[in-house]
Amino acid sequence: MKHFLLTCLSFTLLFSCKKETDYLVKYNFTFAPDSLNITKIVSEEMILSTNNQGYAYMSNALFTSDTIGNLTDLIKQGKLSFSDFMNQKGQGSQNIKLYFNKDSNAYHIHTSIDGLSYKFKDDVTKLTWELVDEEKRIQNYKAKKAKTKAFGKNWTAWYTEKIPVAYGPYKFQGLPGLILELSDDKNNFKFDLVEAKIDTTKYPIYEKANEVNSKRIEFENKIKEIKNNPVRITSKTGDDTVKDKKYLDLRKEEFLKKNNSIEKGLQFNL
Questions:
Q1: What digits encode the pLDDT tens for the residues 80-116?
Q2: Which end of the chain is flanked by fewer CB atoms within 10 Å, N or C?
């Protein structure tokens, strides 16, 4: 009986501990890639994985690729069909893995462009939130309203104190509860909660997250470079492979329509 009570106590403590910090949150991210045509909206499912160290944020496609495990074993066990795997496998339009470690107080961003990998460290800017005396229901959660100005835009967030995690999508954090909904006042960017649950994936948030091979300014310069001269960079040698003029013109036009981003200078959908 004593052993049974200890086992139950251990399980309860473990569950309580995970409940406090370990969450897997899925958002539907809708955004207008072209600031001159905000009627054209693109959507992508994004994942926020939290624990007592901080959080990881990325597209559901990238998260699935990281956590899907051994394909052969999953298919043999009947946990995944090959067609489902092929549908889930990929990068998505948002090519970003963002990691936040509260101890280092820094963001580590992993991304790539034209086959070149960029892993850089980014400073954390503390957001100043205005808590508004307004509430609404989002799914089964009582949500409270907050406002802030960040990245040159005005934002409205709805958060819940029921989930005591001070994080949200991208670099939005610092509220007394999980952000369930977030949008800018121009309706260019919006995050809507799909689901939030206790995380059982044990996603390795900081495994290789601190790797750095570049600086933010180098990534920003590469974005400018390919927009001005959109040639294909081969991943093997980095040599420019010049395509025909028609292809280059089409690619320039494509990039011109991708001029909108949450944070100026950082684009993850090229």
A1: 555 554 444 444 577 899 999 888 888 999 998 877 8
A2: N
CATH number reported for the structural domain that contains residue 133 in this entry: 2.50.20
Domain that holds residue 198: 22-214
Tell me if 162 sits within 8 A of 135, measured CB to CB: no
Predicted model pTM: 0.79
Residue 49: strand pairing partners: 24, 56
The total domain count for the chain is: 1
158 vs 134: CA distance, rounded Å: 9
CA 77 vs CA 10, 87, 257: distances in Å: 30, 19, 44
CA dihedral (183, 184, 187, 190) positive or negative: negative
